[in-house]
Amino acid sequence: MAVISEIKRRSPSKGDLLPDLDPVSLARDYADGGAAALSVLTDEEWFGGSVADLTAARGAVELPVLRKDFTVHRHDVLDARTMGADCVLLIAAALDDRELRDLHALATELAMDALVEVHDEAELDRALAIDAGLIGVNQRDLVTFEVDTARAVRMAARMPSGVVRVAESGVRDADDVANLGAAGYHAVLVGETLVTHGDPAAGVRELRAGFPRK
Q1: Pairing of strands 10-11, 15-16
Q2: Inter-residue contact 29 to 60 (CB < 8 Å)
Q3: Is the Cβ–Cβ distance between 99 and 72 less than 8 Å?
Q4: How does DSSP assign the chain, residue by residue?
Q5: Which CATH number do you get for residue 39?
Q6: Angle at 7 between CA 194 and CA 41, to 5 degrees
Q7: What is the pTM of this model?
Q8: Does a structural domain hold residue 70?
Q9: Does residue 152 fall inside a structural domain?
Q10: pLDDT at position 214, please?
Q11: CB atoms inside a 10 Å sphere around CB 150
Q12: Beta 65-68 vs 87-91: how paired, if at all?
């Protein structure tokens, strides 16, 4: 399993988390803790992020970087590539079938990964229909912001063996990581838990303690 550690200043549901964070310092702490990748919010209105946060974090460590934003146009994918991102987020709920297919294809053409985020079985079927190889299950409802910690476990069984599975939102500790690993997930994407931890490197190590032992 892998921990994708998120650089996140605020959230719509919780407000300010760490508004004065230093993306360079935080990225280095995550890397020291053993994070496999970074997720960086670049949306300013809802999350207080910026392109500057991504470029600063990207230059500070060797880890691959996901641009976490509302990708709704081909220009968003091109911008992500230009700013140095290795991966873009495609939220199935925000895109119709053609948009999802075309943006996924464009990311692939630009040698980028695309994390296709789904919230239910219908969206998962849409992601599988475009042969998405990297799928994230967001356990947080986009309307109510409530977290359903059973959602990712429930949906894991519907994913083919070739899909890289990422669990998003509501991952709090090593026990959550262990449960998701047992369900077949390859990675967890964690923001709030790490940003508010106080010692981000230790926070990543604590999550990694839940990894299945070989």
Answers
A1: antiparallel
A2: no
A3: yes
A4: -EEEEEE-SEETTTEES-TT--HHHHHHHHHHHT-SEEEEE--STTT---HHHHHHHHHH-SS-EEEES---SHHHHHHHHHTT-SEEEEEGGGS-HHHHHHHHHHHHHTT-EEEEEESSHHHHHHHHHTT-SEEEEE-B-TTT--B-TTHHHHHHTTS-TTSEEEEES---SHHHHHHHHHHT-SEEEE-HHHHTSS-HHHHHHHHHTTSPP-
A5: 3.20.20.70
A6: 135
A7: 0.94
A8: yes
A9: yes
A10: 54
A11: 12
A12: parallel
Count of domains for the chain: 1
Cα 40 from Cα 7, distance rounded (Å)? 5
- Asked whether residue 214 is assigned to any structural domain, the reply reads no
Which are the catalytic amino acids? 6, 8, 68, 117, 138, 168-169
Phi, psi of 95 (to 5 degrees): -130, 145
Answer for the pair 78, 65: CB distance below 8 angstroms, yes or no: no
Residue numbers of the domain that contains 21: 2-208
pLDDT at residue 142 in the model: 76
Task: Give the dihedral of Cα atoms 180, 25, 54, 84; nearest 10 deg.
Answer: -90
Structure confidence at residue 175 as a pLDDT band (50, 70, 90): very high
How many residues can be counted in the chain?
A: 214
Is the backbone of residue 134 left (phi > 0), alpha (psi -120 to 50) or beta? beta
Bridge partner residues of 5 (DSSP): 38, 190
Give the contacts of 9 (CB within 8 A, at least 6 positions apart). Answer: 16, 17, 18, 19, 21, 41, 47, 48, 49, 53, 195
What is the token pair recorded at 84? 């140095």
The predicted model gives 15-23 an average pLDDT of 88
